[in-house]
Amino acid sequence: MILSVITIEVGEAMLFASIWLALIALLFFTVNHVYFIFSEEPGLEKRFGPEYVVYKNNVPRWFPRIKPWIPG
């Protein structure tokens, strides 16, 4: 969902040729990226343990993989 919002914001910035909308998109991305790294991921590591760390190392944070990751 976050990636979709960012895509829409970037599209609006391009459509309206607005640097302000582009800056809002960049700010939105930055805030979410920092939140995920410093708040959400440590909580998930506590909750799910080493399995989550393996998952996190094999699945990209922002863009989906071309081939699915199958845990081994």
- Biggest sheet descriptor: none
Spatial extent as radius of gyration: 16 Å
Note the beta-strand portion.
Answer: under 5%
Name the average pLDDT.
Answer: 94
Total number of helical segments?
A: 3
Helix content: over 70%
Q: What characteristic shape results from the CA principal axes?
A: elongated
Could you walk me through the main structural features you see in this protein, from its secondary elements to its overall organization?
There is one protein chain. With 72 residues, the chain is mostly helical. The chain has one domain. Helix content is 74%, strand content 0%. The chain is built from 3 helices and no strands. The chain is elongated. The two termini are 28 Å apart. The mean pLDDT is 94.
Write the layout of secondary structure elements.
Elements: H1 2-15, H2 19-48, H3 50-58
Helix pairs in contact: 1-2
Short description:
This protein has 72 residues and is mainly alpha-helical. It contains three helices and no strands.
Index terms:
single chain, 72 residues, mainly alpha, 3 helices, 74% helix
